[in-house]
Amino acid sequence: MIAAYQDIKDRAVSDIVWVPAIIGVAYAVYSMYPNVEFLVAKIGLVGAISLAFVLLGYMGQADGIAFTFLASDPLPLSPIPPLFGTAVVALSHIGYEYFFGDAKGSPTIPMAQFLKEQKWIPKAVIVNGERRELDRDVNVARELAAKERVEGAMVEVTYGVPTVAYLGFGYLAYLVYLLIFSQAQFFALP
Fold first, then answer.
1. Is residue 122 part of a domain?
2. Predicted TM-score of the model (pTM)
């Protein structure tokens, strides 16, 4: 939940936040011994898919890490139920943002606003009327846009969703569901 909070507040997640999650994954693997093969395979598969998406620039590094940690839930169906909760949270938030205007289209905003508000994903930088496309990789594009700190520079952006926050709140919704409807599974979690 700390990572979700940081993602909402800063749209960036500190590396130190993942240390308790690593300890939790290690404990989950340890608690499944000697039947640990399925859990390790699930973490490896989701981790490989997440790594591919990060390397291709489709999501940020923290998003990939959060997806991988989501797969460490030792229940057999995970990460499917937590992802369903994530989808409900994400669609609700994106619908809200779309309805009120932030998620519509590709607005062009001043560079100062782009640097101040971390919710934007840069697509192009406009300096002195010249438009330059940025890299498709979210992380690279943000760095390239930030280098263009020229008076009057504008940035064409799209709304960037807080994926780690969606995953965190989706997993919390899943835990509440287990607590209400499947207490035996909830209390069997490591």
1. yes
2. 0.85
